[in-house]
Amino acid sequence: MKPPPSARALTSLPGSGLSDDEIELGYVQALFGVRGEVKLFLHNSDSELLVRGRAVLFVAPDGRRFAGKLASRPGAGKRILGKIDGYEDPEHAAELIGWRFAIPKSDLPRLAEGEFYVSQIEGADVIIAGEVVGKVVTVQSTSGPDVLVIKTGADTMFVPCTPDQVIKVDTAARVVELVPGALEEL
Fold first, then answer.
1. Strand ranges in 15-146 using DSSP code E only, listed in sequence order
2. Residue 3 carries which DSSP code?
3. What per-residue confidence (pLDDT) applies to 62?
4. What CATH fold (topology level) applies to the domain 118-178?
5. Tens of pLDDT, residues 104-145
6. Mean pLDDT across 77-83
7. At the topology level of CATH, where does 5-107 sit?
8. Fewest beta carbons less than 10 Å away: which of 4, 13, 118, 155?
9. CA separation for the pair 60, 42 (Å, rounded)
């Protein structure tokens, strides 16, 4: 299969979408400037994984997969800008708006003791006093502490990911243990 005109500088890959051993880093949000740069949305805006440029998997909105190289740099304000090898003008770079980009999970940097990746706890059981009370949907970054988004039946609860609310995060067992009362209205 050869790449469509909109993916001319990317190499077509077999499959569709992301596999279980790949992790999405973000997506191409908008065009920026006249040199083919794009505005990136990174799920971890503090990440430096792409600063030196690296091979990534691009996933088109229809699920097609392509390999390419992406480098990021800071822009004005909180903008993160990206440059995709082979996309030197805005007309071609604009064709990648909405495309997601990912890397193999094995390429993620090692974490320090007590740290975890959001993907490691998405879907994890939430336990209070030994009882499963819900599941972690995701983690939201805020200007303060990160916030666990937890589904408890029909309700969605938000709990700061701080030592006074979270007793333990066990990524191997896929369990997040909260202090009693953590799901009460704050």
1. 22-32, 37-42, 54-59, 65-74, 80-84, 100-104, 125-128, 131-140
2. P
3. 94
4. SH3 type barrels. (2.30.30)
5. 999 988 888 878 888 889 999 999 999 999 999 988 877 788
6. 89
7. Elongation Factor Tu (Ef-tu); domain 3 (2.40.30)
8. 155
9. 16
